[in-house]
Amino acid sequence: MRIVLPTLLTAAMALAQAAPAPDDDPDEKTRYLLGASLTVGPEYDGASRQRVRIKPVWAAKLGRFRITTSGGSALLGFGRESAGAGASTQLLKGEKWRLGLSLRIDSGRDSGDARTTRGLPDVRRTLRARLYANYSLAPDWNLGASLSQDVLGRQGGLTAGLDLGWRFYRSAETEWTAGLGVSAADARNLRSYYGVPAAAATDTGLPAYEPGAGLRGAHFGVNFKHALGKHWFVFGGAGTSRLLGPAADSPLVQRPGGSTAAVGVAWRN
Fold first, then answer.
1. Would you give the DSSP letter of residue 206?
2. How far is the C-alpha of 31 from the C-alpha of 24, rounded, in Å?
């Protein structure tokens, strides 16, 4: 599985060089956004304890290039493209489909962040490359797929996702969307985040566990955006998720299902 993403990236870059650049849209000017959100959710997927976080939200876009935190892309108004966090560019664009590539920093995991992971090896910070594709099934329905690879060869491994999004309400000031999806990962990723090495079993009191590749989880969520004026708006959402396959079988999992909620405010030009 390690050779899948590099092969696709090579093909995508070749297509991007061969194809003409997408036509400029009337609103393809420089755009940026600054904000913050208050989020409540599990310490990690599978944990029973909840954690409250204040997270910065920002994004910037120049033509088909952008750099953004998680969630910032959708708030600028191009969330249907699902570029994700980090620096990204649109490689190809058709009438109903888009293909793009993004890079982001993956913070990994500090085993001391949660009581149940203490004594396990840390997952090192790394750089991830993500190849994503989106297809518009209808004006308010979007299907997305992605592959994300740890390009530094650390413990991040390869992950894949398939998502379906639906915009079920839109007015001049307010937008409501819903989405559901499923994710999978290779053995390296699942062993890093849900495995228990034999050497750490004694220290943690957990049984040794070495998962293989398989499904990672499923999720569903509802989100909203509401404009307070020309530049200011509020946003938020709630979601639920459930671990599947080898991840759900991990001894680190205290609760396979979890929920999150967030609310925030932002300014954009």
1. P
2. 14
Burial state string for 223-244 with b = 16 or more CB within 10 A and e = fewer than 16: bebebeeeeebbbbbebebbbb
**Domain membership flag for residue 25:** no
Angle at 69 between CA 52 and CA 131, to 5 degrees: 125
Give the chain's largest Cα–Cα span.
Answer: 61
Does 67 fall in a domain? Answer: yes
Whole-model pTM: value is 0.83
The reply to whether 63 falls in a domain is yes
Give the whole-angstrom CA distance, residue 265 versus residue 91.
31
| Rounded alpha-carbon distances, angstroms, from residue 234 to 53, 75, 77, 184, 260 | 17, 10, 13, 32, 17
Beta-carbon contacts of 152 under 8 Å, excluding residues fewer than 6 positions away, are: 126, 127
pLDDT in tens, 161-197: 999 999 999 998 999 999 999 999 999 999 999 999 9
What range defines the domain where residue 140 resides? 4-20+30-268
Q: pLDDT grade, residue 85 (50/70/90)?
A: low
Residue type at position 149: Q
Report the number of distinct structural domains present in the chain: 1
Q: What CATH number has the domain bearing residue 202? A: 2.40.160.40
Residues 39 and 51: beta-carbon distance below 8 Å: no
